[in-house]
Amino acid sequence: MKNLKRVGFLIMLMTFVISCATMKSNNAVSGKVDSIESGKDGYTAKISTDAKEVYFATISIVNLGGPQNYKQLKIGDVVSLKGEIWKTDDEKHIKVTEIVSVK
């Protein structure tokens, strides 16, 4: 009986860990910068993709790993970004961890 309880607890724990790990995803977003709003240690760029999706990209020195990776985007730039994507009720966001390209 003790072994059955231990196995049950282990299965519940593994399920919890896996579900928490899959709540947010690391993906890439590519599109055109429509607007930029300055913040305390970075800025938020509104990105429109070719698929007519809009993402709000949070770009900061801390999230990019230091000033050597930080770039100031401009309105009209076509960018490719990697990071952690999450959705609110009516908006999509990405916490940028890498600026892959800027054109």
The CATH C-level name is Mainly Beta
The radius of gyration over CA amounts to 19 Å
Report how far the terminal alpha carbons are from each other.
63 Å
Give the strand content. over 45%
Helix tally?
A: 2
Number of domains: 1
Topology pattern, helix = H, strand = E? HEEEHEE
Percent of residues in helices: 10-25%
3D structure, described in words:
- Helix content is 23%, strand content 48%.
- The protein has 103 residues and is of the alpha+beta class.
- It has one domain (25-102): OB fold (Dihydrolipoamide Acetyltransferase, E2P).
- The radius of gyration is 19 Å and the shape is elongated.
- It comes from Flavobacterium pectinovorum.
- This is DUF3221 domain-containing protein.
- Keywords: Signal.
List keywords for this structure.
DUF3221 domain-containing protein; alpha+beta; 5 strands; OB fold (Dihydrolipoamide Acetyltransferase, E2P); 103 residues
Topology:
Elements: H1 2-21, E1 25-38, E2 42-48, E3 54-60, H2 61-64, E4 78-87, E5 92-102
Parallel strand pairs: 3-5
Antiparallel strand pairs: 1-2, 1-4, 2-3, 4-5
